[in-house]
Amino acid sequence: MIKAATGRGIVDRFFITGVTSITLDSLTSGFNIGNNITHHRSFNRAIGFTREEVEIAVRPLADACDLEQQALMLELSSWYNGYRFSTRAKERIFNADMVLYFIKNFDTETCLYPERMLDDNIASDYRKIMQLFGIGDRVANYEVLEELITVGEVIGLYSRKLDVDKKFDRDDFLGLLLYMGFITINGTVLNEIRYTTPNYVIQKLYYEYFRVEIEQRGQIVVDNRLLNEAVKQLALHNNITPLTEEINKVLALFSNRDFMNMDEKHIKAVILTLLYQS
User: Fold this and answer.
1) Distance between CA atoms of 137 and 228, rounded to whole angstroms?
2) Cβ atoms of 245 and 230 closer than 8 Å
3) What ranges do the domains of the chain cover?
4) For all residues of the chain together, what is the average pLDDT?
5) Beta carbons within 8 Å of 144's beta carbon, 6+ residues apart
6) Whole-angstrom Cα distance, residue 67 to residue 163?
7) Cβ(144)–Cβ(154) under 8 Å?
8) What DSSP assignment string belongs to the chain?
9) Which residues contact 202 (CB under 8 A, 6 or more apart)?
10) CB of 247 within 8 A of CB of 266?
11) Taking a C-beta distance cutoff of 8 angstroms, is the pair 198, 82 a contact?
12) How far is residue 153's CA from residue 197's CA, in Å, rounded to a whole number?
């Protein structure tokens, strides 16, 4: 009906937002007037807040509390910035929801940051990650996650839309993560794209999921109480022994298959995963 309305001149133009490439694929057979503009350079700034917009938004907080604007922006950048939706775009975009959450929960009376820098609505998104990692080849998807955590980036071809007639592969999985905002474009390598995690919030979500994977693979449960106590001993008393004991408990339950390709960066991933819970 919308397509017919454009033909009659009733509808001039319209935008559909929040649609993954899966839905777009099922629409285009009978809806061939649609264009996917998600990764056009000229629309890169439309998805979130630019640095200038965030500076204007938080300036009243900085002025009222005598905070240094540059230091505040550096903190916000590490938590909420980092998104690029086009390989040709130079500017990185802030997550608008997260920035507004920070402003809303900033305590202007005491001039303190929100007690939790991570919106609870976003924190629950790791369940979405768990669902995504179950699509297609779960083992191959897990390797993508492991590469993101240990190397800091993954490289793959850009999958423009998911073809239901072929097997869901690694590039399709990366495309899905890109659409969901769990990875972002960080450059190109010939005809491939270099993907990275955009910010600290997404890193935290990945480590939450990585912990779930570790527990499922090793059939263990990481005790948060013991872990918090171990971190407290290290932070307050310079005693690392309780933390190394918790790390050893986890590593001792890994299978021979897990250890086949394990090196220092994988040990680092396990340690960071445990520390991120505190």
Assistant:
1) 34
2) yes
3) 2-36, 44-121, 124-196, 221-275
4) 84
5) 154, 170, 173, 174, 177
6) 51
7) yes
8) -HHHHHHHTS-------S--HHHHHHHTTT-TT----TT-GGGGGGSSB-HHHHHHHHHHHHHHHT--HHHHHHHHHHHH--B---TT----BB-HHHHHHHHHH-BTTTTB--S-SS-HHHHTTHHHHHHHTTSS-HHHHHHHHHHHHHTS-EEE---SS--TTS---HHHHHHHHHHHTSSEEEEEETTEEEEE--SHHHHHHHHHHHHHHHHHHHT----HHHHHHHHHHHHHH---HHHHHHHHHHHHT--HHHHHT--HHHHHHHHHHHHTT-
9) 181, 182, 183
10) no
11) yes
12) 7
Better-scored residue on pLDDT, 185 or 261: 185
CA atoms within 13 A on the CB side of 259: 8
- Contacts of residue 226, defined as CB under 8 A and 6 or more positions apart, other chains included, come to 242, 246
- Residue 91 has which token pair? 């500017």
Q: pTM for this one?
A: 0.79
262 pLDDT higher than 70: yes
60-75 burial, b if ≥16 CB within 10 A, otherwise e? Answer: ebbeeeebeeeebbee
